[in-house]
What does this fold into?
Amino acid sequence: MADWPASAGEVAMWCGRREFPVPARAVTDWQRDADVQAHVLVDGEQILGYGELWLDTEEDEVELARIIVAPGVRGTGLGRVLVRGLLARAVEAGFSDVFMRVHPDNARALRCYQGAGFAPVDPALAAAWNEAQPVGYVWLQAADTSSASSASIASSASDFRPFLDGGPR
It folds into this structure.
């Protein structure tokens, strides 16, 4: 998935890096952080999407991050499936506050995430969180975590797997 972004601009919107192309090793290096759980959406052995949970046990919250869908399947609804799968994993881990940030130029992702049940946080909160950020992200929060479970994504759950050491498990 490191080679999925087609431009430096896509890289910045996906993961905030300035380096293009993204080295494949970078994706596995991200997972070395104990608070990061990576997952992939697959069809057979083909990876169709990638996303991470950034767990913050001190704040009792999770951020969905570095979400990307393979270029050939963008616009098919798999981004929404991926986001709902990540949300279900966060809720199953015991977190009810689930957030994500979206690059302000990524309107397509913003529509996807809102379609998956996320809504903008209070503008004052977003402003406070953006003080330390390189850009003014659009911050979103899961609007309803009570219905987010593996059962709610049962049709895709078998295709949603942890991603460890460079491959789906």
Notes: Confidence is low (pLDDT under 50) at residues 151-158.
